[in-house]
Amino acid sequence: MGEQPGWSERDRALWDTCEMVAARVRGLPVHPPVPVGSPVRPVADGETLLAAGPVTRYVVQAGDGSYRRSSGFFFATGAVGLAATAAVAAGQVLGNSRRKKAAGRDAAPRWVPAGTGLLTVSTHGFYISAPGGLAPWSYAAVGSCEVGRPGLVDLSGQSTAGPVRWLLESDWAELLFAMWALAAHPTHPQLATGAWLPPGWLEHAARLRGGAAAAAVSQLPGPDTGRFRT
C-alpha cells in the first residue's frame, strides 16, 4: 500500500519512532515495525536493532585565525604623486582591516561536516557505520543529548578515543534521543515536555491518520500528548 498524499518517509520514521517509544514507556518489548536493513549485528544480550538510515556527522572546528598584513611601500612626489601615495596607504589600511576581520571569523568555532554513514539505533545504544569503520555506542557512554532541531541531535559522550561532541543529522535522530533519554535520563526536560518531537507534527499526524494517531501517541511522555489520549 502506498503512502497517503502529504505523508513522507520522514513522517514514517517519526510515526515508527512514536510507536517504539510508546512501547518502551509501557514496559513492553520494543520491536521495529519492519525489518532493519543494517549490516550491524546486536552485541549485547537482549539487544534489538530498531532502525537504520543515513546520517551526517558534524564536529566543531576553528580556523587558524591568521592573516597576512600588507606593508608594501609606495611613495611618489608631486601633487598627483602625494595623492596617489595617500590613496595606496588608505587602501592598505582598509585591506588589512578586512583581512583581520576575516581571520577573526575564521578563528571562531563552527560546525563542519565530518562525514556521512549509516546510523543504526538499537534498544541498547547506536552504531555509526562509515568508511573509516564502525563506531559502537552504548547509551551509558552518552553524557548529554538533546534535539537541536528536527532531525538533528547534539550529543556529547566518551568515545574510545576520548570525549567528543557531535551533531548527528538523520531521520532517526528523535528515536536515538528518546531511547537514550528513557534509558539514561528519564527526567530530561525535552522528554518530559514533549519538545523532542518537531513542533506541530502530532497535529499533522492526527490530520492524516485520524484515530490511529491517538493510539500511536497515547503513551508518549510529555503533557502535549495528553490531548491525543483516548
Q: What is the assigned CATH homologous superfamily of the largest domain?
A: Pleckstrin-homology domain (PH domain)/Phosphotyrosine-binding domain (PTB)
Order of helices and strands: HEHEEEEEEHHHH
The whole-number mean of residue pLDDT values reads: 83
Work out the number of β strands: 7
Relevant terms:
single chain, 230 residues, alpha+beta, seven-stranded antiparallel β-sheet, 7 strands, 35% helix, 27% strand
Short note summarizing the structure:
With 230 residues, the protein is of the alpha+beta class. It has helices spanning 9-25, 78-107, 173-184, 189-193, 201-209, 211-217; strands spanning 49-61, 110-122, 125-130, 133-138, 142-149, 152-159, 162-169.
Which secondary structure elements does this structure contain, and how are they paired or packed?
Elements: H1 9-25, E1 49-61, H2 78-107, E2 110-122, E3 125-130, E4 133-138, E5 142-149, E6 152-159, E7 162-169, H3 173-184, H4 189-193, H5 201-209, H6 211-217
Antiparallel strand pairs: 1-2, 1-7, 2-3, 3-4, 5-6, 6-7
